[in-house]
Amino acid sequence: MSKRLIVNPAWCKGCGICAEFCPKKVLMIVKEKVTVANPDDCIKCGMCEMRCPDYAIYLEEAHDEE
Amino acid sequence: MASELITKYMREEHLPHIWCPGCGHGILMRDVAQAIKNLGIDQEKVCLVSGIGCASRAAGYMDFQTMHTTHGRAIAFATGVKMARPDLEVIVIAGDGDVAAIGGNHLIHAARRNIGITVIVFNNDIYGMTGGQYSPTTPTGEFGTTAPYGNIDRPFDIAVLAAAAGASYVAKGTAYHAPQTIKLIENGIKHKGFSLIDCAGICATYYGRKNKKGSAVDMMKFQRDNTITVEQAKTLPREQREGKFILGKLVENDFPEFSDEYQRIIDSLKEKKQ
Amino acid sequence: MKNRVLMQGNEAVVEGAIKAGMRFFAGYPITPSTEIAEQSAVRLPQVGGHFIQMEDEIGSMAAVIGASAVGTKSMTATSGPGFSLKQENIGYACMTEIPCVIVDVQRSGPSTGLPTSPSQGDVMQARWGTHGDHSIIAISPSSVEECYHLAIRCFNLAEKYRTPVIFLMDEIVGHLREGIEIDDDENIEIVERKLKQRPDTLHLPYHVCEGDDVPRFHLTGYDIRYNITGLSHGPDGFPTNNNEVAGKLVTRLMQKIEHNVDDIVQVEEKYCDDADTIIVCYGGTTRCVMSAVEQLRAKGRKVGYFRPITVWPFPEKQLAALSKKVKNIIVAEHNYGQILLEVQRIVKNCKIGFVGKVDGTVIMPDEIIKAVEEVK
């Protein structure tokens, strides 16, 4: 079962917590919003989702790939 | 557009919340939702009570039975709820000022009674809603808008206070250590008597700025690098414990729960009648 | 069936409240109301209800609102100093429209004052004690029997209008012992919460149906999840800064009481038909006035009394009508003139006299007789 990283820019306040604590440096803050800069490096650990104060980034089951 | 957890346990139409960028409250509120999800409790069976302050706004965002009450009084309101409906899972979310200053009396007495309420403290060491005044947990020597020359008060350790007052489950978590904190909240909710989980938050806007702690990211790093476990805290010499965040369970025991004890009185009177 | 029993006012309140359906009481010891807590502690578990002695007056008020929010008829009791402490949460109950009954057995103040002495110094506090505009219902009993029956009425009005109701007693009535008749028949009206019926309004806790002044209930703790807040809120129960919504809410909170004064207000008028002089009194003071009026009538004087049983909203219409028929109005109350202000506001064409006391002693019939002689 694969997972997908989803970003909701409307809720992102650009605090940078997700990017800083991503163990694989997948995320970047660009113009005060989170961007998935290196999607291939993502190990889907979910730490960004767990520490995002604004629920603006999360992992979702990628149903369309099944 | 949100994760399943948020869609189910929060009122999506009221998000994004009013908290500042990088506010630890958002992380801690998610921890509470995750803990309830992990326990599989029906949303209708959860009554979330809050007081006034930044943390107390959680009541409006979380999709349970929610009561946003008066400053400091959430535990007292929750006591009425629990007595009238012992079947409900009664949870209080409170800030440090709310629960330990204006509401300090209710905290210690609810702990003493051991009534089955779970209190989750979003503890950011400052009054945020009113703009950065020092709180009962602001460390001595630090600054707030009402401590312009440095705080000369000594801070409370809310967890130790609750434990001393008789709380039967007490733990400490942090915004940074989300997985561990979720587990501690879960255990607190599962626990029958009065439980309190004192969670170190992040207030970069007021506390951080007033005390030159850097950004929310810097404050999270500081939490990461300065946290010790309850076990470590027991063995470390005092100087090395100073200023550290503590993570883990401090107290757990099986004192009788208050509403159960009251039910025993009701039952005994019924028996006498028969 | 009617049972004749000897009872104290403070005990009768509890029996009346239980008859009305009270199943939760939270309180804190304070003279001269403590017997109400004591009696509740004995009686409530006997009927499957709950009593709790809270850590303070503020917590008691909070616990009462919490219990009522999840569907349990609830009451607290206090006296002046405690009544002051409860005010913020009474405002919360007004704003969130959670029914509850607050008994205030008034004693001499301000501050600690004379804790065991009678007074009626909290009349204005009952009306305006909490901050912000709101309406309130306050009822004042003058006998032990009324302590029982009006306690039931307090609960009925609280449920019907979704509001805190102040049972404004005083030390005279609270500690009075009288033989009273307690009705245990089914004829006593007990009002239960009007629950929401329309599925489209279930998620709107403060939606008011057309023709209603009061939103119907959907209780916290059952199948529909919703939010209650002391912040300004719309029909959905969530905080809003919208000025129009905020204005509408406060206006409705006022109007749901003011538009229903005919249903809420009760007065007693005695010997008023041919009277040229009437005495306005309420609560325990009525007993002194009654004696004075009877003595004056025996001397052939045309004196009667007018007693607001409902102190708030004040029986404005009734007093205005009566004032057109008489020459003199004397207000008798155990304070420096609180209801006097209302009387002065409403009455235009009469001489107004006043008998008040603030030293902790009771107004004697002679003092009232003297005032009647003087106003002539």
Task: Tell me about this structure.
The complex is a heterotrimer of chains A (about 70), B (about 270) and C (about 375). By secondary structure, chain A is α+β, with helices and mostly antiparallel strands. Chain A contains two helices and four strands. Chain B is globular and about 70 Å long. In chain B, the strands form two sheets. In chain B, strands 2-1-3-4-8-7-10-9 form an eight-stranded mixed sheet, with helices on both faces. A two-stranded antiparallel ribbon of chain B has the order 5-6. In chain B, about 45% of the residues lie in helices and about 20% in strands. The longest helix of chain B has 16 residues, at about 25-40. Chain B has one domain (about 5-275): Thiamin diphosphate (ThDP)-binding fold, Pyr/PP domains (Rossmann fold), CATH 3.40.50.970. In chain B, α2 (about 25-40) packs across α8 (about 180-190), α5 crosses α6 (about 105-115) and α6 (about 105-115) crosses α7 (about 160-165). Chain B has helices at about 5-10, 25-40, 60, 75-85, 95-100, 105-115, 160-165, 180-190, 205-210, 215-225, 230-235, 240, 260-274; strands at about 45-50, 65-70, 90-95, 115-125, 125, 135, 170-175, 195-200, 225-230, 245-250. Chain C is built from 13 helices and 16 strands. Chain C has helices at about 10-20, 35-45, 55-70, 80-95, 125-130, 145-160, 170-175, 245-260, 260-265, 285-300, 315-325, 340-345, 365-375, and strands at about 1-10, 25, 50-55, 75-80, 100-110, 115-120, 135-140, 165-170, 175-185, 225-230, 265-270, 275-280, 305-310, 310, 330-335, 350-355. Chain C starts with a strand and ends with a helix. The relative contact order of chain C is 0.12. Chains in contact: A-B, B-C.
